[in-house]
Specification:
It is a single chain. This protein has one domain (12-416): Immunoglobulin-like, CATH 2.60.40.420. Strand 20 (354-355) and strand 21 (358-359) form a beta hairpin. By secondary structure, the chain is mainly β. The protein has 5 helices and 28 strands. The longest helix is centred in the first third of the chain and has 11 residues, at 12-22. Strands 13, 14, 16, 18, 19, 22 and 24 form a 7-stranded mixed beta sheet that branches. A 5-stranded mixed beta sheet has the order 15-28-25-17-23, with no helix packed on it.
């Protein structure tokens, strides 16, 4: 028998007051970043005095130290589906550059869907601070959060995000994760606390590591291939075979609308009946996937934009497009189809497809990925006529926005002259 309770309804002001009674204003927020000088989690600090050479400059300072930093919060918010329905979410928000004293306030109802993109460089030391700001719309919850860098070989289990073997972050507290970025590839990240619930609610994000080969000196010869300034690669391939011109990280996922509504209504959660009714790419269903701009903020978020990652793929004719695909769906295996532009698969699960010096890259029109898998796919548009092409799910059930047809897990590839 379903136990029903009163739906949680309260004016935003009352919710804020209750929230700050439960979460002390003197929260234990501590942001750590070696190139930070004023406690805001970035390297943009400028000295007020002294010669220009001694002033802190983010690109130069990060390069000299080999450091990259980001500051995130874990909390709740809302996201708008392609048919206009607004669903309650959990999520991460990027608060890099926010002073420690302001993190708790800025993170309220700021959950992004998908989580903020993280793009870092091989060889760097990566510091990620996560602060738990609590759930404004569910003040009865005291869930801790964590960051799991999925597929990455952590040197220490304490930074892996698993509740059984690592540190998790309680409300009003923060933790700085450290990663030595020794391997390039397409990864992903998510909260690993009560993983099925928190991932279904939206704590999922794109994450990739760019290879050191990008930084070779112009004119360097790689097995007969000459590297030029500005060339970019998926892996340290040694021969230029994974070179690309433009890249697009695409996260496959979906929401079960009943699960999200029951969560906000403080009802027992239907884990056994979980079925995604809103399949999405980068947190959007078609036609929102072809919108290059952030989506309009739901009124429930208090004006905070929660869906800023576009899913539109654009390139000039003749360019090589890298699709960094990841499937963080917890209910389904997904197959993406590109019927008009062949896909060359060069990597799976953050590993180049090769056996020693033998390349195992292959060309196809569809890529199949289970939950937690990633694939690096290059679309070569040489000889492709300018125009509009499609990338979509093979399962027709996923080409809808709940009861609205012609939507869901589909986006457009726009080839310009």
């Amino acid at each position: 028998m379903m136990i029903k309770t009163r739906r949680l309804r309260m004016p935003l002001l009352m919710a804020l007051l209750l929230f700050f009674v439960v979460v002390p204003l003197r929260a234990q927020i501590k942001i750590q970043c070696p190139c930070d000088r004023n406690g805001d989690g970035d390297c943009l600090d400028i000295k007020a005095t002294g010669p220009p050479a001694e002033r802190y400059d983010e690109p130069a300072l990060q390069a000299s130290l080999g450091v990259q930093c980001i500051s995130l919060t874990g909390g709740d918010g809302f996201a708008r589906m392609a048919d206009g329905k607004v669903l309650y979410t959990f999520g991460f928000a990027d608060v890099t550059g926010t002073p420690e004293a302001d993190v708790m306030v800025k993170g309220v109802l700021a959950a992004a869907w998908p989580a903020p993109l993280i793009a870092v460089d091989e060889g760097a030391q990566f510091y990620l601070t996560l602060s738990n700001v609590g759930m404004l719309m569910r003040p009865d919850l005291f869930d801790p959060h964590s960051v799991h860098f999925h597929g990455f070989p952590n040197a220490s289990a304490v930074f892996d995000g698993l509740p059984e073997s690592a540190i998790v972050i309680n409300m009003g507290a923060s933790l700085t994760y450290y990663y030595n970025l020794a391997e390039p590839g397409t990864f992903m990240y998510h909260c690993h606390v009560e993983a099925t619930e928190h991932m279904q609610m939206g704590m999922l994000g794109n994450l990739y590591v760019r290879p050191a080969q990008n930084r070779l000196a112009a004119g360097t010869v790689l097995n007969g291939f000459t590297h030029q300034a500005g060339y970019k690669y998926v892996y340290n391939d040694g021969d230029g075979s994974t070179r690309y011109d433009v890249e697009f990280p695409l996260q496959l996922g979906g929401f079960d609308s009943n699960f999200h509504e029951d969560h906000l209504n403080v009802q027992p959660l239907p884990f056994a009946l979980m079925r995604d009714t809103y399949p999405m790419i980068n947190g959007r269903g078609y036609p929102d996937t072809k919108n290059p701009n952030p989506l309009v903020a739901p009124a429930e978020n208090g004006g905070i934009q929660s869906q800023v990652e576009s899913s539109l793929i654009t390139a000039r004719a003749g360019q090589r497009i890298l699709l960094r695909l990841s499937n963080l769906n917890i209910t389904a295996v997904h197959t993406l189809i590109s019927p008009s532009i062949p896909m060359r698969v060069v990597g799976i699960d953050a590993r180049e497809l090769r056996n020693g010096s033998t390349k195992l890259h292959y060309t196809t029109n569809s890529v199949n990925m289970g939950g937690g898998m990633s694939a690096d796919v290059i679309l070569d548009t040489t000889g492709v006529a300018p125009g509009r092409y499609f990338l979509y799910a093979a399962n027709l059930n996923y080409l809808s926005n709940y009861q609205e047809d012609f939507g869901g897990m589909m986006t457009e590839i726009v080839i310009n002259p």
